[in-house]
Amino acid sequence: MQAVQYREHGGRDVIEYGEHPEPDPDRNEVLVDIKAGSLNHVDIWTRKGMPIIDLAFPHVPGCDGAGVVREVGEDVTRFEPGDHVAVSAGISCGDCEFCRDGEPTMCVDYHLLGEHVPGVHSERAAVPEQGLVPVPDHVDWATAAAAPLVFQTAWRMLLGRGDLQPTESVLVLGASGGVGHAAVQIADYVGAEVYATASTDEKLAYAEEVGADHVINYEAENFASAIREQTGKRGVDMVVDHIGAATWHDSIKSLANGGRVVTCGATTGGRPKTDLDRIFWNQLSVIGSSMGDPGEVDDVLELVWSGDLEPRIRAELPMSETARAHEMIENREGFGKVVTRPDSEL
Question: What are residue 317's phi and psi, to 5 degrees?
Fold first, then answer.
């Protein structure tokens, strides 16, 4: 079969699309004919290499994908051939204290398909049963592939961990990206007052289109100063920050007394300078969040399947052009998700 793969860490030039061994499903796995995948920032970091992750090469990337069940292992009970499914990439052990307590994202062995182990950007993929969710037949493949990772991440950040209320205000940084544009929609759906940042007027217009009440061009002005001005020096109740070192200081400055910043990533670096005096004096909370538990995944994807929430697609490319997809994400081109399809599906 054909698959996206690389044999070493490096720049975009290490990405190949070519022959790869057929997957051999285990008894608890499902063999899926992949119809579409989508890219996330984690694909960039995995390709470049992270010290804490030791990959087996060649590595097939891809946390997001959707397709049709071809066959199921003998222990699989939730799916059968012909079902439409999407990948929910977080895999837990099921046995540790956190899993038994209903917190699989805190599992001591929690890992992501495509990041820690082979992913799904290939013609076929063997996926653990727990890593799949059903998709209604009316949902198109691009939507099914683009939604799971970013929408579950944003849902858990805002609601599961951040407990955002309709009476509150929230600032979403990087509203043109995958998690950012999902967070804007979810905050708007909840009924909160939504502030959003982006780097161009075009991206800000998209942010307004999906639910932002106020927008800030962070290339033209300091977003923390803009927030203080627009809120009468009060600040916002919550900041959604998945950017990291480049924004952390201003994220803290943007909070109202008693506010909280919720983070799910650090695309510009994970060792920011921070203001401990502001944190303790203003009684701020710093909350970490990763992916979503199965109930959260079901809740948010039901709203995607119904059309209440919508993953925006900035481009659809053949998987053989995955290097170009990486370039679009690295250069912050466009708004929303980049979808790729196996060349055989085009």
Answer: -130, 155
Contacts of 238 (CB under 8 A, 6+ apart): 158, 162, 164, 168, 169, 170, 171, 255, 259, 260, 261, 262
Secondary element (H or E) of residue 216 = strand 214-217
Largest CA distance in the chain: 61
pLDDT of 15 reads 98
Which tokens hold the place of 168?
């509150």
Q: Identify the DSSP state of 277.
A: H
pLDDT at 346: 83
Total-model pTM: 0.95
Categorise residue 269: left if φ over 0, alpha if ψ from -120 to 50, beta otherwise. left
Q: Please choose, from the candidates 132, 169, 148, the residue with its C-alpha nearest in 3D space to the C-alpha of residue 28.
A: 132
Q: What are 216's strand-pairing partners? A: 197
Tokens linked to 13: 């030039």
Sign for the pseudo-dihedral over CA of 3, 17, 341, 206: positive
- Residue 95 and residue 107: Cα distance in Å, rounded? 9
Residue ranges in the chain modelled with pLDDT below 70: none
**CB-count exposure of residue 172 (10 Å: 0-12, 13-18, 19+):** buried
242: number of CA atoms within 13 Å, CB side? 26
Closest CA relative to residue 240, chosen from 173, 190, 189, 305: 173
Residue 328: φ, ψ to 5°: -60, -40
Number of residues that make up the chain:
346
Q: Which domains does the chain have, with CATH numbers?
A: 2-147+311-345 (3.90.180.10), 151-288 (3.40.50.720)
The amino acid at residue 175 is: A
